Predict the 3D structure of the following.
Amino acid sequence: MKKQPNIPLFNAMVLAIYLVTIVSCQPRTAKVQVAESANFRFEEQGIQQIQQGYKDGTFTIKEVVQAYLDRIDSVDKHGPQLNSIITLNPDALQIAEELDKEMKAGKSRGPLHGIPVVLKDNIDTHDKMATTAGSRALRNSFPLKDSFLAKRLREAGAVIIGKSNLSEWANFRGQLSTSGWSGAGGQTRNPYDISRNPCGSSSGSAVAVAANLTMLAIGTETDGSIVCPSQTNGIVGIKPTVGLVSRSGVIPISFTQDTPGPMARTVRDAAICLGALVGVDSADTKTLSSAGQFHTDYTKFLNKDGLKGKRLGLYKIPMGINYKVDTLMNQAVNYLKSQGAEIVEIGEIYDRKVDKYSFEIMLYEYKDGLNKYFQLLGPKAPIKSVEELIAFNRADSVELKYFNQHYLEMAQKKGDLSAAEYQKALAQMLKGSRADGIDRVMNEYDLDAIVTPAGAPAWKTDLTNGDSFQVGSSSAAAQAGYPNITVPMGFIDDLPVGISFFGRAWSEPVLIEIAYAYETGTKFRRAPVIH
């Protein structure tokens, strides 16, 4: 009988070779150490560490919140001026004091008690912060109530310390747009190289997490807006199944594809946050199907051996574009195999005609959704229709300075959601992306998940020519409305890149298990060195 190899020893050797190879790919001058600030004591700390400090009396919630506010002032508003935060919550310290009192009385609101969180500025809060979508047209727009997810965060004990900048209108305004730029907030910078782009549209959310300006952030995605900025800024992003997290009180693009999701420095923290966000909301009918599917504690799926026995489909279509990304991805595949995963190469997941259908759906749903959102702002709404918004932008001195509003104008020309063109596009996209797409591939190859590069390193910000995307893999899951988790995969020339795991509807538990096992074994997260 053939002698069996020593599997634990073999796996350890593969991991060692993998990590050494990754490090050797970096330039000799690469700054790979975790940055430390003499005046900021909470760098890279997770939810468990911070909450243990609260319990031990090592520090208070108010002290932690103050430290993060000071950090924002020193590196976001001054210093390198990352420009990730569009507005701060003037009540943050008062909220922290109230939470401290509750802790002293032996009360904890929930899993995020005392944890600083930043919301993308297309998420409504009923407080002293406006919700702008990055548009100068909404600078004085104060929603009449909290979004469902803001309410859930407060109930879980989170401290919403501010709103983050974004690609204006979640990057669905016009052609040649630049990710991370908005008329209201200016240009957000990548903390690993401030000349480079943070991707978007949840640009500020990703940068704030990466640069230790917050512990958690909430982003939103229609297609790539959580995945891309997460991978570009070296953090974890979870794009949930559409309907797992309510969109009520979130400025929309597409009712079919939009979803908020957590962004964090670790899978554990992202999982904790996700559990606090879920729930059925009567104001968002998509959440009705999440009943019996969601979990209020996703940490129970964290398993360092979660790759063992998993069958993963390697989606290679995004490869062959950037050889440096391919090198990291091939090394990642070898690591996945060493940890007991079986890798099966798969071809194209869906017919590319689905992309055209998706765009048509967005145009119809954008007009419908924005007009309905403006009405919910009440009689004092600064803008009451897409038509008014287009007119505002034409008259404003800043809004159309760098790129146009072609998508808004296209949306305005569309009819209502009863239009045959819309109904056909919706049916074709859902069938092509689900039954004929991800579901088909998952069934055909008997897969637990699909794995693929999340993107390429950040490009130079160019306000004249717009974004320079190279590699992307978000559309398959985005168009199906299925979950996608991105975690750090390594660095290319000092710039982070990520790996994505996606799968069937409601498969967050298995994706979290896989992502956590990969993250735990590789530990590629490194904070940017900020001077």
